[in-house]
Amino acid sequence: MHGIGILGVVLVGMVAGWIATRVLGRRQGLFANLLVGLAGALLGGWIADLLDVRFGGVLGGLAVSTVGAILLLSVLTLLRRR
What we know:
It is built from three helices and no strands. The chain is 78% helix and 0% strand. The protein is globular, with a radius of gyration of 12 Å. The termini are far apart.
């Protein structure tokens, strides 16, 4: 997500975290959504890089961040059940 600035990254992270929690039927606060979204962005970006998937712009960054956030929340849910 080059060129959107820190505020843009924070907003994309919040939206990605919010979308991920809605997809998985969870309810979290704004700060938790931000953390999940930012961690999801790192995870999603890493996975996209491993798979050599290219994405661009804010919408591409949001999609990758959301997928990463969903994966992160799914893994955390599985670990908590153990």
